[in-house]
Design brief:
By secondary structure, the protein is of the alpha+beta class. The protein contains twelve helices and 14 strands. The termini are close together. It binds zinc ion. The site of zinc ion (ZN) has 8 residues, from loops.
């Protein structure tokens, strides 16, 4: 968890942008052959490393470079990349010889791969020479790519028979401005996100979609035909993708709002949500989707970084029971999931809006892990990113 705090608050953030290469049939074949030959070479290097019990990239290269070059038709820089791959594999364990998948990913550096983000294409080395390949990319990835730096992995996805480049992007935090005021955001089951400006993103659309897909799935499972099976396979992951899209939209909206109004974003420590929301029964659990909370928080954190918006995490205690108007804290203040009615001053509000105001203006900011007082904060030492 420490990483999430540190990434969001202290150091620069490394993010991965993914683009799909629009290869011609000929380019496709050449890239496949490139991966195949590179991984074959990795296997040869691995055997050499295992035999001589030498695992460091530099030492391996010194001992075997000539032999490896003679063994393959790969460019010298590609051979160097293979040494790194083999050496990295042995960092994970040296109890047995490492083998490599035929079409496993290979890292390219800027000597064998060049990005032309203005033209949306790359120039990439292959066993058939340099290839100029256009790529497809979505808006968020496009924004990331302007910070592309260092290595990119060439990945072959055999399920859809397509090539992807995963580019490492270094998002600078230097252009993040220091601000004092904040937007508070309350995440929940019924309303995915409610902010302290009173904007509410309901879960109804996502929930409706989930129920519809579940019904369809049940119907298809009863029919054991071949076409039903095919259909079921297509449905797999559909809800996740839908939810992901929704999370992308909501997080972007929040972050842009904070940026335009020169405010930071305050969120609850996620452990607060885990302890506060009691989940009963299978149906509730299905709605619950822990991963979705985490995903939304991650999206907010990385988009905030991208747009130079600061994120703070606050102590979640009493944010839903406290009256924002008079400060009175009582369980009975919250009459139902959606209604807040203060027993002291009579102030009425939407419960999630009241909570998000407390998050924005009242709740104590949790310090990054290092300086947390383990004694006074029950959430300290556990992972706010959930389990
Ligand atoms: Zn009150």
């Amino acid at each position: 968890m420490a990483t999430q705090y540190i990434c969001a608050m202290i150091i620069d953030m490394k993010l991965i942008a993914q683009v799909r290469l629009n290869t011609s049939p000929e380019q496709h074949t050449l890239l496949l052959r490139t991966l195949e030959q590179a991984n074959t070479l990795c296997d040869t290097m691995s055997s050499f490393a295992w035999e001589h019990q030498v695992f460091g990239a530099f030492k391996l290269q010194k001992l075997s470079y000539k032999q490896m070059r003679e063994n393959s038709k790969l460019a010298s820089q590609m051979v160097i990349r293979c040494y790194s791959k083999v050496s990295d594999a042995y960092k994970k364990g040296r109890h047995k010889k490492c083998n490599f998948r035929k079409y496993g990913a290979i890292a390219y550096d800027d000597r064998i791969l060049r990005w032309y983000t203005d033209k949306q294409c790359v120039s990439i080395w292959s066993v058939g020479g340099r290839l100029n390949i256009p790529y497809s990319v979505g808006e968020p990835q496009k924004a990331l790519l302007q910070y592309q730096q260092g290595e990119s992995d060439l990945v072959y996805n055999r399920h859809n028979n397509a090539f992807y480049l995963l580019a490492t992007c270094d998002i600078p935090s230097a252009d993040r401005k220091e601000v004092e005021s904040a937007i508070g955001a309350d995440l929940g089951l019924v309303n995915i996100l409610t902010d302290s400006d009173g904007e509410i993103h309901s879960n109804a659309r996502v929930e409706k979609n989930r129920v519809r897909l579940q019904k369809l799935r049940t119907r298809l499972q009863k029919r054991a035909t071949k076409s039903a099976k095919r259909h079921l396979k297509r449905l797999a992951g559909k809800q996740r993708r839908f939810q992901r899209d929704v999370n992308h939209c909501i997080s972007k909206r929040l972050v842009l709002k904070a940026q335009c109004t020169k405010r930071m974003i305050r969120l609850e420590d996620l452990t607060g949500i885990n302890t506060r929301t009691k989940v009963r029964g299978k149906e509730e659990r299905a709605k619950r989707s822990n991963w979705s909370f985490k995903q939304l928080r991650d999206f907010i954190a990385y988009k905030a970084q991208l747009y130079g918006v600061k994120v703070e995490y606050v102590d979640p205690h009493y944010t839903s029971q406290r009256c924002f108007e008079c400060g009175h804290i009582e369980k009975g203040n919250r009459r139902s999931q959606s209604d807040f009615h203060c027993l002291n001053c009579g102030h009425s509000a939407h419960a999630d809006s009241n909570a998000s105001l407390n998050i924005a203006f009242w709740a104590a900011v949790n310090q990054p892990i290092v300086s947390r007082d383990l004694g006074s904060h029950p959430a300290a030492g556990t992972s706010p990113s959930g389990n």
